[in-house]
Design goal:
By secondary structure, the protein is an alpha+beta fold. Helix content is 32%, strand content 18%. Strands 5, 6, 7, 10, 11, 12, 13, 16, 17 and 21 form a ten-stranded mixed β-sheet that branches. It has a five-stranded antiparallel β-sheet with strand order 18-19-20-22-23. It has a four-stranded antiparallel β-sheet with strand order 2-3-1-4. Helix 11 packs parallel to helix 12 (323-333) and helix 15 runs antiparallel to helix 16.
Length: 698
């Protein structure tokens, strides 16, 4: 037995982080990313023959691929503080950067992406070496980290921001993200759904991923955005189940107004950040994924509503994964769907049109003009639908309406996008469904299920085994059916007479509930009608937490993430605070009530001990007005807020407070208020003197 274990250890030791064909040699450092040579002869030959880049631009294209990818981020657009945060970026941080002289090539000054709406997306080139050299860059890095954690910005690759913009999302849309993890595009979709601040949208976002573990990355994204209109499911996208909904008392299947179909791909468009692609790339990668990409996109079109929009995208430059999939879908749909011309949708974005002709090759880079020319031994890798359509057909498909983003045009990664519009309710292969619906059968649900599971006789490929979905067994989703014991106490304490309490749910049975979550009406409709056959990973925003405090009349307190949802319905337990009060709340852990303004003390005296919401209105009466709403606790002799350190830094930052000392870990600091247009010099000086009295770290 010991001998076998020794052999196993030796075998494991052969694996390295570099070339898998080279074992670890004693006394030598294993091959790492820094040792990868950014060259691949097969890659260059393949893409030269595909003509995706004009010959005169080839050297610029390759030079861009070998260069490191810039950093990009966007501000969360649906929040009231977005403009305030943008003002901070344009002034406090980036103006300092513009005056820094850096000679290294690994730096470009920050600039706003011209095609992204409302100046909310930015890009800059910044290496770790420069961050260590400069205090200004270090502050910027701390800023990006803290605001990302608080959910106020999202660090996202530039080209990845494009597909959600082309969906043209409205607050009432039902949206499906078929392959959502890790979730940067999903977060963007949620932000667009919530663009109209102060209201809960009628729409819903269903974010799906086949990988159970990656689904929990989506959970993390959702928690930062606090959306009650968001559901995470765990299914194979190519076999995405039909979701039942109750519409005006009639059970039917949900059809989506918008679908994001960002399919798994070979990822050679990400070669600037994933440099391992240089040594792993080969033609077979794209060929092997073509079938999966086609099946996912085809299922997406089936789930799309009439006049709905589906955006197909890949981070691959390969026409086998891009135009070949699009052409096959268009030909099989028989004019049921069409490509939308989006070339003018994002002014300032440089793109290349889709190809009308491409070459199909095997791993040895042998090209074939038609499927008849493909030897039998390659027919498992190369399929008939990979080949470009005949010239008389291709002109009708409008493949030039596809968009390909090349890295050297605007210093980005590589990307491909096609936008479909469904112009007929039923696709050609759904003729049986059309017949059932037209006859209005009573057993429509059963018959539709039978048709969906029936295999198309024209498809002669071997049947695919259904992939078993592994993962954790989720807790149940239990909605409030009546007021019960819990709700009357919460309702009366917070004065929530008009709150839709039946949209509250818990994850455990019985009256001893720890957390209460809120979902929108559309999300509740989906959860209630599909809990038995759709694997739902997560949904809802936590709005109440159990807090068994003997001094409080209510056993549940509010949660910070649930405040925006609860506040429009609350008629009690609200304290309006000044800037000085806000700073005190955010900089002292448990500040005594006597330290606050007289006005706040008067308001607090009218409240019993327990949870309360503190509201500060900045720039009151101006176009730049925004509110900060804090969940806290009013005690007998103190007032405190339940806000994390990261969130405290964010709120202070957008109120004009210098937070540079906050970003230094494990150090005490003093706060100095910066001068803002909201105060006179005399008022500023008073605020500074008051702030100096608070010498406590968060």
């Amino acid at each position: 037995m010991p001998r076998n274990r020794k052999k196993k250890r030796q075998k494991i030791g052969v694996k390295t982080c570099g070339d898998p064909n080279k074992g670890h040699v004693a006394g030598k450092r294993p091959v790492g990313y820094s040792d990868i040579i950014k060259e691949n002869a097969s890659f260059e030959r393949y893409y030269k023959e595909q003509h995706i880049v004009p010959e005169e631009e080839w050297e610029m294209f390759m030079a861009a691929l070998r260069d490191n990818l810039p950093t990009a981020f966007r501000i969360t657009g649906y929040r009231g503080q977005a403009n305030a945060l943008l003002k901070v970026i344009q002034g406090q941080y980036f103006q300092d950067l513009l005056n820094v002289n850096v000679e290294e090539e690994e730096y470009t000054k920050p600039y706003c992406l011209p095609w992204y709406p409302d100046n909310l997306a930015w890009q800059l080139k910044l290496s770790r070496v420069i961050i260590r050299k400069s205090e200004e860059f270090s502050r910027l890095h701390n800023f990006l980290v803290s605001e990302t954690e608080s959910g106020n910005i999202s660090r996202q690759e530039t080209v990845s921001m494009i597909p959600p913009l082309l969906l043209d999302i409205k607050p009432y849309h039902k949206i499906l993200d078929m392959c959502a993890a890790p979730g940067s595009k999903t977060a963007q979709v949620i932000e667009m759904l919530h663009k109209e601040e102060g209201m809960i949208p009628d729409g819903v976002v269903v974010a799906n991923d086949v990988d159970n573990k990656r689904c929990y990355m989506l959970v993390h994204q959702a928690k930062r955005l606090h959306s009650p209109c968001f559901i995470i499911t765990n299914h194979d996208a190519s076999q995405m189940p039909n979701i039942k909904i109750n519409k005006n008392g009639i059970e039917t299947f949900l059809k989506y107004d918008r679908i994001l179909c960002d399919v798994p791909c070979s990822g050679d468009g990400t070669i600037r950040k994933n440099i391992d692609v240089w040594r792993k790339w080969n033609v077979g990668n794209g060929n092997n994924l073509h079938g999966l990409q086609f099946r996912i996109a085809k299922r997406g079109l089936e789930l799309l509503a009439l006049n709905g929009i589906m955006v197909y995208s890949t981070c691959s430059l390969n026409p086998i994964e891009d135009e070949a999939v699009i052409a096959s879908l268009l030909q099989q749909s028989n004019d049921s769907v069409e490509l939308v011309d989006t070339s003018e949708s994002l002014p300032g974005l440089k793109t290349s049109p889709g190809l009308s002709y491409w070459k199909v090759m095997n791993r040895e880079l042998e090209s074939f003009d038609s499927f008849d020319d493909v030897p039998d031994k390659y027919r498992t890798q190369i399929r008939p639908q990979m080949f470009p359509p005949a010239p008389e057909i291709v002109s009708k498909l409008n493949l030039h309406r596809c968009l390909r983003i090349l890295p050297h045009h605007q210093n980005t990664g590589g990307f491909f996008i096609a936008v479909f519009k469904k112009v007929k309710e039923f696709l050609p292969w759904e003729s049986q469904i059309k017949e059932i619906v037209s006859h209005k059968n009573n057993d429509i649900e059963e018959k539709l299920s039978d048709v969906i599971e029936t295999k198309d006789e024209s498809d002669k490929s071997p049947p695919r085994k259904k992939k078993k979905i592994w993962g954790y067994k989720e807790d149940p989703y239990i909605f409030f059916k009546d007021e019960g014991i819990i709700w009357p106490n919460i309702r009366d304490f917070y004065k929530l007479d008009s709150f839709p309490y039946k949209q509250l749910l818990s994850r455990c049975a019985g009256e001893r509930k720890k957390n209460l979550y809120f979902v929108s009406e559309a999300a509740k409709n989906i959860v209630q009608n599909n809990i038995d056959f759709v694997k739902i990973i997560n949904t809802g925003v936590r709005v109440f937490c159990r807090s068994d405090n003997k001094d409080a009349k209510c056993n549940f307190r509010l949660s910070q993430e649930g405040v925006p949802i609860i506040l429009p319905f609350m008629e009690g337990r609200i304290l309006h605070i000044s800037l000085e009060d806000l700073i005190l709340l955010l900089t002292e852990e448990v500040p005594l009530l006597q330290k606050f303004s007289d006005e706040l003390q008067k308001q607090a005296a009218l409240l019993d001990s327990g949870c309360a919401v503190m509201i500060y209105t900045a720039n009151k009466g101006t176009k730049e007005e925004f509110k900060i709403e804090l969940c806290g606790w009013k005690g007998k002799a103190s007032v405190r807020c339940y806000v994390t350190k990261i969130e405290r830094i964010h709120y202070l930052r957008i109120c004009g407070v210098d937070v540079s000392e906050f970003e230094k870990k494990d150090k005490k600091f003093k706060i100095y208020i910066t001068k803002t247009s909201e105060f006179t010099e005399e008022e500023d000086q008073k605020n500074i003197e008051k702030a100096k009295d608070t010498d406590n770290s968060i």
